[in-house]
Structure formats: C-alpha cells, structure tokens
Amino acid sequence: MRVLVTGGAGFIGAHVVDALLAQGHEVRVLDALLPEVHPGGWPEHLDPRAERVHADVRRPPDGVLDGIDAVCHQAAVVGLGLDLQDLPLYVGVNELGTAVLLAAMARAGVTTLVLASSMVVYGEGRYTCAEHGVVRPPARAEADLVAGRFEPPCPVCSRDLAWGLVPEDAPADPRSVYAATKTAQEHLAAAWARGCGGRVVALRYHNVYGPHMPRDTPYAGVASLFRSALARGQAPLVFEDGGQQRDFVHVRDVARANVLALVGGRDGALTAYNVASGIPHTIADVARAVAQGGPAPVVTGQFRLGDVRHVVASPALAAAELGFTAQVEFAEGMREFATAPLRGQARA
C-alpha cells in the first residue's frame, strides 16, 4: 500500500513512517517544515526511504496524492496554546488544512483516511456520583482551583465523584481551542466519508511520549517539559497537587495503531478508537519517573485554566476491532524516555 503521511517529519509522524516502512508499505511524507518546528529542515531521524514533499497541508501541490492508496493525517498544531490569539493558527492548520486535504482526496479518489484525533475531544473524563450516576461536571471554576479544590464535584449535588474509563461513545465536550479543532476534524472527516463513500478511522491519542518529542515549549507534552527542566538542572514543576490522572501511551504503540487502522476497524463513515493503555498514572508519577536521580519534582499548586482533572480511557474497542493493545509498559517506556533524544522547539 502507498500511504501519504501528513506531518510525517513531526514527533508522531516520523514514528508512523517508521512503522509503515517496517510493514512493507511505501510512504510519501508531506510536511511544512516550519522553522520553529524544524530549524534544520528535514530531521535526521526521518527514514530516507520515505519520499519527501515540502509543502503546507493547506496548500498541497498538485499530484501529491498520485498513486496514493490511503492517508495518515498527523499534521496539526497541538497543545492548549498560549492564549486566544492562537485561535486563527489552530483553526487554520487543523480545520482548514484538514478540509483542503479531504477535498484533494475526493478529487483523487483516495477513500481511506486514518485521522490523528485526541482524547481532548472528551473534555473531562468519565465520572460517577453515588446518587446521580454518570454525570458530566462543568469546567472547573478558577476560584476552586485557587483554593486548591482540584477534584470536580457532582454538578447536581456537589458531592465527590468517582472517575472511570472513558468509552468512545462518550459525548464530545471540547474545553480548549485545540480540543474544538480536533472535534471539528472528526466531523469534517465524517462528512467527507459520507459524501464520497470513504472510510475514516479516528485514533484518539492519549498522552503520547517517547523519543524525539519537542522540548522547551508550552505546546509539548508534560513529560517533555519535565525532561527539559531536568536538562537545565531544574526540578520538574508539577501543577495542582500532582494527583491529576492521564493515560500515557508510547509513541511506538501509537505508530503501530496507525498501521493497524489502515486495514482494521469497521466499514462506514467514521469510527473512533481510543489509543491508550487503560492504566492511569498521575502527573506526579510521571515527574518522578522522568527525574531518575535528578532534582526532585516540586508540587506547585499552580494550574492552567482549561486543563481537566482525570482522563483515562477504555482500550477495549481498539483491542476488539483493531487488534491493538499497548505493548510498552509505563516503567519501561519512561526509563527509555529519561535519556532519549528530544527535538528542538516546536509548535506543531
């Protein structure tokens, strides 16, 4: 199969390229090579067997889809962003870029899309109240966060809630600009598939980490920010009380999920799958795992508005329909990550 990987020079994209080539697929990479992301141009770790096209996904060159059987769409601006002035950038790359790509696929008759989606479409995770059952707490109030009340209460009775695993049929509740654009990507892809008889597998990545993550940027993952602090001889700064839970999945597992999604899953307009381990770890766990003898993490009590408290997913559907289960265990992956090479400053 010949596969176009958009954003294929990026952190996840380059690993997807590796996984596809390892399975005998032919790969064409489309990447804008933004200077703030790739100051040296094409990264040295990108497999030289991949054909390379230097172009923005919003303005792909004619013929970029010639001979292509499927697309793995990784190109995006990621992270919560800095402020609302980032809105045009996120919408331009993530939504307009996706729309331009889908229109080009329709013209070229390419009908298989693997879409890099995200767990951020869920907002907060799944919560249960002892009295009111499954509930959806609203965004946490700034006053509560300032006071150190980090756990979301029941929206009906204000009691404490129990968290649970989030299934794919949980309603979307995007709580940041980035989350809104990832939700929009899924809707655009579903509409495209219905219009052209295409097939979309949306992979909702959870917290991805591993070699060649971007560093020293608010757009990077928390594990990378911890690594960057340690490299400067500084203690990792843990927000809130460190008890917020996430599902950390290694980038090689994410890449493998992309390969499986090319031929697995359901037929039809769009099916979403959690790409996750199903095993929760706190942010404090990650800081300690990455430190490995460096300065001890410092719990600051600081917070970011828009962050959610607990998001841990059910991996059951991906296991049943894609044959995907995460293979890199947290302790093993973090040991590797503690010394793995990172990439220079990045925004996408």
Describe the structure.
- This protein is an alpha/beta fold and 348 residues long.
- Helix content is 30%, strand content 19%.
- It has helices at residues 11-22, 87-108, 142-146, 177-196, 222-231, 251-263, 283-291, 316-321, 330-337; strands spanning 2-6, 26-31, 51-54, 70-73, 112-118, 126-129, 133-135, 162-164, 199-205, 207-209, 237-238, 245-246, 248-250, 270-275, 281-282, 298-299, 310-311.
- The strands form five sheets. The chain has a seven-stranded parallel sheet with strand order 3-2-1-4-5-9-14, sandwiched between helices. Strands 7-6-8 form a three-stranded antiparallel sheet, with no helix packed on it.
Give a brief rundown of this model.
This protein has 348 residues and is α/β, with parallel strands linked by helices.
Helical residues, percent: 25-40%
SSE pattern = EHEEEHEEEHEHEEHEEEHEEHEEHH
How many DSSP helices? 9
Give the averaged pLDDT, no decimals. 92
Q: Outline the low-pLDDT stretches.
A: none
The rounded distance between the terminal residues' Cα atoms is 27 Å
As a whole number of angstroms, the C-alpha radius of gyration is 20 Å
* Strand line-up across the major sheet: 3-2-1-4-5-9-14
- Strand tally: 17
